[in-house]
Amino acid sequence: MNKIGFNVLAWSAAISDDLKPILERLKSIGYDGAEFFVGDTNEAACRGIGDFCRSIGLEVTTVTVLSPAENIIDADPTVRTAGLERIKFIIDRSHDLGSQVLCGPFHSAFATFSKAAPQEIEYERSAEILHQAGDYAAQAGILLTPEALNRFECYLCNTMDQLGHLLDKVNHPNVKAMFDTHHANMEEKKLGGAIRQIAPRLAHFHISENDRGTPGSGHVPWDETFSTLAAIGYKGWLTIEGFTRNDPDFANAIGVWRQFSEPWEMAENGYRFIKEMGEKHGL
Questions:
Q1: What is the DSSP track for 3-60?
Q2: Distance between the two ends of the chain, CA-based, in angstroms?
Q3: 82 and 69 in contact (C-beta within 8 Å)?
Q4: 75: burial class by Cβ within 10 Å (0-12, 13-18, 19+)?
């Protein structure tokens, strides 16, 4: 069975000792790892939580986004350079946490639009920076997995077709793809087909319901999803990413205006759901 993770953004975007009892309970449920959002995160806090995760046997993955001032597809080279430096900072903090994988839509700035369809030069700018970031991440033993988002949160990569096009240009062994069922539910014609399309590069997977609530409670085609993952021989993480209003600042920043599920209901029932689906489809 694949390793199962849970993103602690369901409780907080901050990395602090307040997460320790949450991490202990995730471990007791059976989770193999926890995923953390890395922003303007303190180095000591990352090292402390990383050490704590190792002490209780939890592995770590991380996720991040870029701001408009760090947009690596911007026409201004100084903005792109700032984006590369930001990604390097996130890689450093991820290394402090003991992360294996850094995922997220860091191919471009989050919720930043040009009022035009993506241009080839923008893919080229993104690829140039991501290739350099791949070199840096390889030294830290961290795999970079850029994420396609829905059309309301980005425009460069909404689909696996676009993400694959970008990765062709990046052409780096340390830069692979991630798949998120929440975004794919909006942007892909068929989830199974999209998973097969990106399969040779697929290295991280978010299990996310259509409304960001508990996996299995909505209309994402889970049988198609898990059977396809089994068919392509996917061996990476299956990480639940669900959002709540427990951290109001973070919730407001990503447009979460209601409570989809309580965090522990999501964690407990989501874990059982992934185990059941994995057993059903031979993952």
A1: -EEEEGGGT-SS-SGGGHHHHHHHHHHT-SEEEEE-SS--HHHHHHHHHHHHHHT-EE
A2: 5
A3: yes
A4: exposed
Cα–Cα distance, 263 to 52 (Å, whole number): 21
Q: For the chain, list the domains and their CATH numbers.
A: 4-281 (3.20.20.150)
Please give the model's pTM, rounded to 2 decimal places: 0.95
> Residue 21, Cβ neighbours under 10 Å: how many?
9
**What six digits make up the tokens of 203?**
């290295």
CB of 5 closer than 8 Å to CB of 33: yes
pLDDT tens-digit map of 98-157: 999 999 999 999 999 998 999 999 999 999 999 999 999 999 999 999 999 999 999 999
DSSP conformation class of 117: P
Contact (Cβ atoms closer than 8 angstroms) between residue 220 and residue 205: no
Amino acid at 132: Q
